[in-house]
C-alpha cells in the first residue's frame, strides 16, 4: 500500500470514528445536545481536526444519516433479491424496513430532522448529495421488484414507471415511521401495533392495484404466518425469538 492510499485509509477510519462518536452522543443525549467539541474530544482530537472532515454540524448530521442508510439498504436487499413471488417480496421489503427501524430507531428521527429546511439548506451540497446517493439503491431495489411483477403479469404497469407505482407503499412506510417517532401522537389516538397496521394497509394498497395474488388484509392468522415466514427465511439473525410478530410493533 502506497503512502497516498494509507493516508486515505487513515482519513476514512478517523471520519468513521467521528461518526460513531456523534451517533453515540445523539443516542444518549438527543439530537439537540450534539456539540462538535464534544465529538472531537471523545475521539481524542482537536475540534479543528473534526472540522477538516465536516465543515459544520449540519454536515456531520447528514453524514450520519448517509452512513446509516447503507445498513438500511443491506436489509432491504435481502427482500428484493428473495426468490419468491413479487407480492411476497414487496411485503418482505416492508418487514425489512420495520426490522431496521426497530434496530436503528435514531435513524428515522435523524432523517426527519436533517431534511427540514433549516438543516438541509445549511449543509453543503456535497453532503446533501451523499445522503441522496446513499438512499438511491433503495429506489432501485423496489423498482426492480415492481418491474419483475409487471413482467410476470402480477400487476399492470398503468403506463407508469416502476417507482411511480411503488410510491404508494413508500409513502405508507415513511409516513408510519414519522408517526412512530413523533412523540405522543400514537398514544394520543390510542393506536397500537402501528407496524402491523402498516403491513395490513400495505396489503390493502396492493389489492387496490390488483397485484396478484390478492390477499385478505384482515386475516390475522394469515398475516402473522406471512411475517413469521419472512422472518424465518430472510431475517433469522434479526428475529432470534422466532415468529417476528413482536418485531412489527414498537412496544
UniProtKB/TrEMBL annotation:
Residues 12-72 form the HTH tetR-type domain. PROSITE patterns: HTH_TETR_2. InterPro entries: Homeodomain-like_sf, HTH-type_TetR-like_transc_reg, HTH_TetR, Tet_transcr_reg_TetR-rel_C_sf. SUPFAM superfamilies: Homeodomain-like, Tetracyclin repressor-like, C-terminal domain. GO terms for molecular function: DNA-binding transcription factor activity; transcription cis-regulatory region binding. Residues 35-54 bind DNA. Keywords: DNA-binding, Transcription, Transcription regulation. Pfam families: TetR_N (PF00440). PANTHER family: HTH-TYPE TRANSCRIPTIONAL REGULATOR BETI, HTH-TYPE TRANSCRIPTIONAL REGULATOR RUTR. This is AcrR family transcriptional regulator. It comes from Isoalcanivorax pacificus W11-5. The lineage of its organism: Bacteria, Pseudomonadati, Pseudomonadota, Gammaproteobacteria, Oceanospirillales.
Amino acid at each position: 500500500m502506497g503512502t497516498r492510499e494509507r493516508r486515505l485509509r487513515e482519513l476514512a477510519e478517523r471520519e468513521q470514528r467521528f461518526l460513531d462518536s456523534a451517533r453515540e452522543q445523539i443516542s444518549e443525549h438527543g439530537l439537540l445536545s450534539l456539540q462538535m467539541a464534544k465529538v472531537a474530544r471523545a475521539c481524542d482530537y482537536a475540534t479543528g481536526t473534526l472540522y477538516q472532515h465536516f465543515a459544520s454540524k449540519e454536515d456531520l448530521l447528514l453524514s450520519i444519516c448517509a452512513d446509516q442508510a447503507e445498513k438500511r439498504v443491506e436489509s432491504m436487499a435481502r427482500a428484493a433479491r428473495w426468490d419468491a413471488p413479487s407480492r411476497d417480496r414487496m411485503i418482505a421489503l416492508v418487514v425489512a424496513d420495520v426490522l431496521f427501524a426497530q434496530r436503528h430507531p435514531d435513524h428515522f428521527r435523524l432523517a426527519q430532522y436533517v431534511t427540514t429546511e433549516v438543516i438541509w439548506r445549511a449543509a453543503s451540497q456535497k453532503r446533501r448529495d451523499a445522503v441522496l446517493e446513499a438512499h438511491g439503491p433503495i429506489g432501485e431495489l423496489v423498482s426492480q421488484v415492481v418491474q419483475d411483477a409487471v413482467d410476470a403479469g402480477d400487476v399492470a404497469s398503468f403506463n407508469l414507471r416502476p417507482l411511480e407505482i411503488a410510491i404508494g407503499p413508500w409513502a405508507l412506510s415513511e409516513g408510519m415511521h414519522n408517526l412512530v417517532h413523533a412523540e405522543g401522537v400514537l398514544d394520543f389516538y390510542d393506536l397500537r401495533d402501528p407496524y402491523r397496521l402498516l403491513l395490513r394497509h400495505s396489503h390493502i394498497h396492493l389489492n387496490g392495484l390488483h397485484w396478484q395474488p390478492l390477499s385478505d388484509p384482515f386475516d390475522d392468522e394469515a398475516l402473522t404466518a406471512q411475517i413469521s415466514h419472512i422472518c424465518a427465511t430472510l431475517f433469522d439473525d434479526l428475529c432470534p425469538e422466532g415468529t417476528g410478530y413482536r418485531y412489527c410493533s414498537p412496544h
